[in-house]
Design a protein that fits this description.
Distance between the termini: 106 Å
Number of helices: 1
């Protein structure tokens, strides 16, 4: 008898099964990478918004105690909180300037609930 050349049906089926498993794993990896990239891009926009609002204090927003918010930008809500920063020790005695703690929060809805970015800074302002 002559021996036939080529692959048997079983070998072809095993090769297709391995290929299908490999493709499934690769698609999961690419899907996760796309999701991570989208989340990272959203966080970058939120940080840029919070930083812009933080930089607006003293220019567009007065440097005085209070809470400020406005219309959402790029689908993100923002809040600026300004409160006096307590001084301690020898600094509390007759300070030349009043330090303020400024907190900027940018938040947005997502599939897993509300996400947010919080930035804080201390600025010096006039004594009250």
């Amino acid at each position: 008898m002559r021996r036939q050349q080529g692959f048997s049906l079983l070998e072809v089926l095993v090769a297709f099964a391995i290929l299908a498993l490999s493709m499934g794993v690769l698609l999961q990896i690419f899907s996760k990478a796309l999701t991570t990239t989208a989340i990272s891009e959203t966080y970058s926009r939120a940080v840029a918004l919070a930083e812009a609002k933080l930089n607006a204090v003293g220019v567009d927003l007065p440097l005085e105690e209070g809470v400020h918010s406005g219309d959402p930008e790029d689908g993100m809500d923002w809040i600026i909180s300004i409160e006096p920063y307590p001084l301690q020790g020898w600094l509390a005695e007759n300070p030349p300037l009043q330090p303020y703690r400024i907190t900027a929060v940018a938040s947005w809805p997502s599939a897993r609930g509300t996400r947010r970015v919080v930035l804080r800074s201390i600025r010096l302002g006039e004594l009250r």
